[in-house]
Design brief:
Helix content is 39%, strand content 23%. It is α/β, with parallel strands linked by helices.
């Protein structure tokens, strides 16, 4: 699914009717089958932008087009069920999307509401757990008793259970170790390549993001201030410095090798691949 923001603004009504504008006149397009990233400072409005896509909140002005669905100020003619069926959302704090006393109930509730058959439900629950490297031994566990990384994996499985066309991820790798992050990247690549999903992610983990993202938007001071492929954005040291965004270590390392050893290496997504290339060159 393609997602398009047209002149979208959003403001919160604060205490005593004082308004706080978070987004101002946002225009952007998330292309179908692409992994997109929103990066920026912690208070730039990234989570707000993601929540607008899932109609958790409504634009103050403008509209969001998701194929034939339109989200606007009044949500007029918006079929929320269609939206929820096509969009999976992983919250920054996964506990916020848990409401049941077992992993099984948490995963099957949406399928029950959508009249899936029991056999299909059981298979989908098991398959969803396997995709995030959990198994059926978790079915009767209480979601709130899981570890931080297990909660995050369950939230991802929950978001994938209906096979949505769009997957939204808000800081999805907090609490994951190195191996779990590698598995997460592998899963996202699979979802993009095999299932052609549109993926939108917000994360402060720039080095991880660099390894799999296709297209990047920088959000600052309520507006989209830059956009481009990861190659265009992450190689622009001046741009990143302006918005206090760290350059990925793999690019920093390649630049140092060029400056100190005069070894020019092509663009690499992963620092391990870069080190291998340097070793081959020296050898």
């Amino acid at each position: 699914m393609e997602i398009k923001f047209e002149n979208v603004s959003f403001e919160y009504n604060k205490i005593n009717y004082i308004k706080k504008e978070v987004l101002n006149n946002i225009n952007l397009k998330f292309k179908k089958g692409q992994i997109n990233a929103i990066i920026g400072s912690p208070s730039s409005g990234k989570t707000t932008l993601l929540e607008l896509i899932d109609a958790l909140i409504s634009p103050t002005d403008g509209k969001i087009k998701i194929d034939n669905l339109i989200i606007n100020k009044n949500k007029k003619n918006l079929n929320i069920n269609d939206l929820r069926f096509n969009i999976g959302f992983v919250f920054q704090f996964p506990e916020e999307q848990f409401f049941n006393t077992s992993v099984k109930k948490e995963l099957e509730v949406e399928m029950i509401l959508n009249d899936y058959k029991l056999d299909d439900i059981n298979k989908r629950v098991s398959d969803a757990l396997k995709m995030v490297n959990l198994d059926d031994s978790y079915l009767n566990k209480n979601p709130f008793d899981l570890s931080s990384s297990e909660k995050r994996k369950l939230a991802l499985a929950q978001s994938l259970i209906l096979n949505p066309k769009v997957l939204i991820l808000d800081e999805p790798t907090i609490g994951l170790d190195y191996k779990e992050k590698k598995d997460f990247v592998k899963l996202l690549r699979l979802l993009k390549k095999r299932y052609n999903k549109t993926i939108i992610i917000s994360t402060k983990d720039i080095d991880l993001l660099h390894s799999f993202v296709d297209y990047i938007f920088i959000l600052d001071n309520k507006k989209i201030v830059a956009e481009g492929t990861k190659y265009e954005i992450f190689k622009d040291e001046k741009l990143l410095s302006q918005y206090e965004i760290n350059q990925p270590k793999v690019i920093e390392f390649a630049t140092k090798v060029l400056n100190k050893k005069n070894i020019k290496i092509g663009y690499r997504d992963d620092i391990n691949d870069l080190i291998k290339d340097i070793y081959r060159y020296v050898k």
